[in-house]
Write a structure and sequence with these properties.
About 30% of the residues lie in helices and about 20% in strands. It contains 18 helices and 21 strands.
């Protein structure tokens, strides 16, 4: 048992500390995992004469970064299944799948994740390609965006797909020039078999629990290395819940984790496990439209969407959306709805605005995940409905030109409109959507501050944030997004002693150098969980 857990007072001092409440204390004192006081170093030492003094080596200390929408469990499970993250050729895809087919660990379904056609090549991996690897064992390759997947003939047969008309509502099956299924499944066409809900078997088995825990441990180490102390996992089923609970039990879960339970697994009649500040369910996730960077989000005005029609894809019907949000709200839980396009956001608002007041008088702050393409009127309605917004932090940097090419300059300017949202006093949390993109919060902060794409194109300059505002998104904003604003996101008395030490002061350097700043150490509950030394 370490000193922090025994309750001994420790005083942490640094060159500069941003407490994120507007103050800059010289030091803060902790007992257990909480901050108990802040102030001048000398005064702290005088007040707590038996305390241990810890001089934090670095230029800036801020509250621990909190990613309010990401998918670390999927990054871990990809390493247990077939991980295509770094595969850059068709031969590499073939070899990785063939190796798994030979492995004793192979199950009936062979699942590969994080496929990226930008690395492998467009229109290369399809049903026919996968059939050359196996005609007898079902293979599904999941795109890195998590909005589509491609399957071989055996997998399509077992799912029950023979023609494009077999696609469920909210999903699509693509065909080749001959009108035959080419293996590509969009949205619910692959999500329903992947996330079928309570009492139904998924096509993707979890794998050995020991392997899952080990993979999650690797991911946790990587997150701490970029200053992550908390995150909200935005798609969780019993497979992921079991993995997190096991990691917590064996002491390897050193991040604080909130979970969004996928709606088809939510049972409003069953009690939710008691919340802790280490692992808890923060809400129920559902998906209304497609991908911003994939050109499938639901917008008011038509655009040439990726799969060939003139607008985005609506995944849940209006009736399903109303029913699902309604039952989550009635159960006293937070609904977290994936909605990228302005029409999708509008549909969520229409439902939330129509919800009856709860008899217990409690206000539930529902969330819109991504909340990408907005206008000032939508922002005012979001504020009035007390909805929390989770716009992408780094997508303008990573996909600025692509977003503009899909949706036009006007919509691109109001994509991830952090400044307008903050000006309206809307709660805005930091969101990477990792592993779709890098999780590094400093990349997200730089993108919010500069609004520059990788090529240097400025997309929506009037949405630029100050460094302090961007830090607030990744600290106080994310804490509020899971209902934890009273215990996370600030270095003030009563808050958890979660913080990160940086080697440069973000507020004094060129904004284009923010992503290059290094983390010196990461601390959770006053315990050092990662160090660069």
């Amino acid at each position: 048992m370490n000193e922090a857990s025994q309750g001994r007072v420790r005083i942490f001092a640094a060159e500069r500390i941003l407490a994120m409440d507007g103050s800059e204390p010289e030091s803060f004192a902790t007992r257990g995992d909480r901050i108990i006081a802040t102030g001048p170093r000398a005064a702290m030492m005088e007040q707590y004469r038996d305390a241990e003094l810890v001089d934090l080596e670095g230029a800036l200390v801020v509250p621990g970064f909190n990613d309010a929408h990401c998918h670390p469990s999927q990054a871990a499970l990809a390493r247990v299944r077939v991980d295509l993250t770094a595969v850059s050729s068709p031969a590499g895809v073939r070899e990785a799948l063939a190796q798994r087919l030979k492995s004793p660990a192979s199950t009936e379904w062979v699942i590969a994740q994080a496929f990226d056609e930008r690395l492998v090549g467009e229109n290369v991996v399809d049903r026919k390609f996968l059939d050359t690897i196996s005609a007898t064992q079902p293979i599904v390759v999941v795109h890195y965006s998590f909005h589509r997947a491609v399957a071989n003939s055996r997998a399509l047969e077992q799912i029950g797909y023979r023609t494009a008309q077999d696609a469920p509502s909210g999903g699509e099956l693509l065909v080749d020039a001959d009108g035959e299924l080419n293996g590509w499944m969009f949205e619910r066409a692959w999500l329903d078999p992947w996330l079928p809900g309570r009492g139904r078997e998924s096509i993707a088995a979890g794998g050995e629990i020991s392997a899952r825990i080990a993979a999650l441990g690797q991911i946790t180490e990587e997150l701490h290395a970029v200053g992550i102390t908390s995150y909200c996992d935005a798609i969780v089923t019993p497979v992921e819940q079991e993995m997190y609970a096991a990691a917590l039990a064996d002491g390897s879960l050193t991040t604080r984790v909130n979970m969004l339970l996928w709606h088809s697994y939510f049972d409003e009649t069953a009690p939710i496990a008691p919340a802790s500040n280490r692992l808890q369910v923060a809400g129920v996730k559902m998906m209304l439209d497609g991908a911003l960077s994939g050109g499938t989000c639901l917008c008011r005005q038509p655009y040439a969407r990726e799969s060939g029609t003139d607008n985005g894809l609506q995944i849940l019907s209006d009736e399903e959306l109303r029913a699902e949000i309604g039952r989550v709200h009635s159960a006293g839980m937070r609904a977290a709805v994936h909605a990228n396009g302005d029409r999708a956001i509008e549909k969520v608002l229409e439902v939330v605005e129509s919800l009856p007041a709860r008899p217990d008088g409690i206000t539930i702050n529902h969330r819109i995940e991504h909340c990408s393409i907005v206008d000032e009127q939508l922002i005012r309605r979001l504020k009035q409905a007390q909805i929390m917004a989770l716009p992408f932090s780094a997508f303008v940097h990573l996909y600025g030109e692509k977003i503009a090419s899909y949706y036009g300059d006007d919509r691109a300017r109001m994509t991830s409109a952090h400044k307008s949202m903050l000006d309206a006093a809307l709660v805005v949390g930091g969101s990477s959507d990792y592993p779709l993109v890098p999780i590094n919060p400093l990349l997200g902060i730089q993108s919010m501050v500069t609004r520059e794409s990788t090529s240097g194109q400025v997309v929506g300059p009037d949405q630029r944030l100050s460094v302090s505002q961007a830090l607030g998104v990744y600290t106080t904003g994310s804490a509020h997004a899971t209902g934890e604003g009273s215990i996370k996101g600030k270095l003030t008395p009563g808050h958890l002693a979660d913080f990160v030490v940086l080697d440069k002061d973000l507020t004094t350097i060129d904004a284009h150098e923010i992503v290059d700043v290094k983390v010196r150490s990461t601390w959770v509950g006053a315990d050092q969980v990662w160090t660069a030394n």
